[in-house]
Design brief:
Chain lengths: 403, 107
């Protein structure tokens, strides 16, 4: 858009800017590193009159999300943001927001879970709530944080689902880069407000999410209502339906703003690659550098980026990986006692696929452990050699582990 | 989908007696105040009011005599305990007689 302006800003400022452009009406958040500047920025704008929203100060993350749930239930557009233990503290209400099908949008500046205490980046926090029924988007840079947060409202309000916009703590949250800020008029056109499913009215009270047992039962008026399992199936269908709604939102965004982020997945040097390096978030940028290095050595490597982690883009991943010689998945999280969560999901998605490559797992960057493009290229060289040697499976590698 | 639709995408219901905070139907005993004994009535001014002070659910309004809101009163009996002249008795609901509580009338 010609009337957009470009500013140099952090990822946290990009998230806050998107919330302002989305004309959020209620913001509630509790400070936690590295997310705090998001709500500090929004708080300043509310105080200065730049953002006509209600900023609710709360005593915990549990209450922050509860305020957003209540406000969304009466039809307000809401925003909150958190990290790590804050997200964990929200856990009960994370499930409530999803089950009540409320279009809450939350930023997650990804941070390692305690114990031991650590404020630096990995993705264990958001991965730990992957099954709660939220859409999860992972961003690779600050422009994508702004753009994905705007897209998140469109996805949330069309699918009646909450959306978690994840971006790597410090690596993006506190790193400045140029970000194009679209005009308010263009955002207003992209984001017409849609009412959430349950719009409560004090004059005509309703219970939301009352006790709903296993089987369908008539309500007080004699109308047969779904049982718990039917409602969960509808919720699941809404999430799988987001596999269309997310690319639709991305394409509509591209038509208005001229930028597309790939919808579900994205590739870098992927089409003719024989070795696919798979990850979510900012790690895909280092993998891009690693892939270019490897190509200089004769290993045709490319990157498959997971932008949408829930719903899981199974078909897009199958299409991208069919015929590859190897998929090496880098996770910044572990399902302790098993393996990296993205690795598990990629294995599951490619199971039974004709021409499926072996899927190797690698764990990297836990608790902010540095991950360089050179280390990633080394890991890919070892994996490539193992694949050439015919290993269909291999124990996962922990990159740059010093045990 | 409007708020009156039920059971399509989410679970919703119309509040029934005892829901939406109307806790009166939890009660097994109700406070019955004897105006003859109530200090405020005797002195014909806003004196005492200890039942109003102590009610944990704000179900008593100040007055001569204080009035109980039976839509919300859970029947805990604290008002009867703190009344210095035993003007409040806790009477089992099935013996209370008289007008039913509003939430009962709606059934």
């Amino acid at each position: 858009m010609s009337d957009a302006i470009t500013a140099v800003m952090t990822g946290n400022e990009a998230a806050a800017t998107a919330a302002r452009l989305a004309r959020v009406q209620v913001v509630a958040a509790y400070p936690i590193t590295p997310q705090s500047p998001v709500v500090e920025t929004l708080s300043r704008w509310v105080e200065e009159g730049e953002l006509p929203a209600e900023l609710v100060r709360v005593e915990s993350e549990h209450s922050a999300l509860t305020v957003c749930i209540a406000a969304a239930s009466v039809g307000a557009r809401v925003f909150t943001a958190t990290s790590a233990n804050g997200l964990a503290y929200m856990n009960e209400q994370i499930w409530w927001a999803a089950g009540a099908r409320l279009p809450v949008v939350m930023g997650c500046a990804n941070r390692a879970m305690a114990a031991p205490w650590n404020v630096l980046n990995d993705q264990q926090d958001s991965m730990s709530v992957r099954d709660a029924g939220w859409v999860q988007l992972y961003c690779r840079n600050n422009q994508e944080i702004l753009d994905s947060t705007l897209q998140a409202y469109r996805i949330a309000e069309t699918q009646h689902l909450p959306v978690l916009v994840c971006y790597d703590g410090f690596l993006l949250s506190h790193t400045v880069m140029p970000v194009e800020i679209p005009s308010q008029a263009a955002v207003d056109e992209f984001l017409p407000h849609r009412a959430p499913l349950p719009v409560l009215d004090p004059a005509d009270p309703r219970n939301v999410g009352p006790v709903t047992l296993a089987d369908p039962r008539p309500n007080a008026e004699g109308v047969l209502c779904h049982g718990y399992m039917e409602l969960r199936a509808l919720h699941h269908r809404a999430l799988t339906g987001a596999l269309s709604a997310i690319p639709d939102a991305d394409q509509a965004f591209a038509r208005t703003f001229g930028r597309s982020w790939g919808g579900l997945t994205f590739g870098h040097l992927l089409d003719d690659a024989e070795v696919a390096l798979v990850a979510a978030g900012s790690l895909t940028q280092e993998l891009g550098v690693a892939a270019e290095t490897l190509r200089g050595e004769g290993i045709r490597a490319g990157v498959l980026g997971i932008r949408t982690y829930r719903p899981f883009p199974r078909e897009a991943i199958r299409a991208a990986l069919a015929g590859k010689r190897l998929a090496l998945v880098f996770d910044k999280a572990v399902s302790y006692g098993h393996e990296g969560p993205i690795c598990s999901d990629v294995r599951g998605a490619t199971a039974g696929l004709a021409g499926a490559p072996p899927v190797y797992g690698a764990v990297a960057g836990l608790g902010g452990r540095d991950v360089t493009a050179a280390q990633l290229a080394d890991a890919a060289r070892r994996a490539s050699a193992d694949a050439r040697a015919g290993l269909s499976e291999r124990p996962e590698e922990w990159v740059n582990l010093r045990l | 989908m409007g708020t009156k639709d039920c059971g399509h995408q989410i679970s919703m219901s119309t509040p029934s007696p005892g829901e939406a905070g109307e806790t009166g139907d939890w009660r097994t005993e109700r406070p019955v105040l004897s105006s003859v004994h109530c200090l405020a009535v005797k002195q014909d001014d806003l004196s005492c009011q200890l039942c109003w002070v102590y009610c944990p659910d704000v179900c008593l309004s100040q007055g001569v005599p204080p009035l109980v809101d039976l839509r919300y009163c859970k029947g805990c009996g604290i008002c009867a305990e703190v009344c210095p002249v035993d003007a409040i008795r806790m009477v089992p609901e099935d013996e209370a007689g008289g007008a039913p509580a509003p939430e009962e009338a709606r059934r």
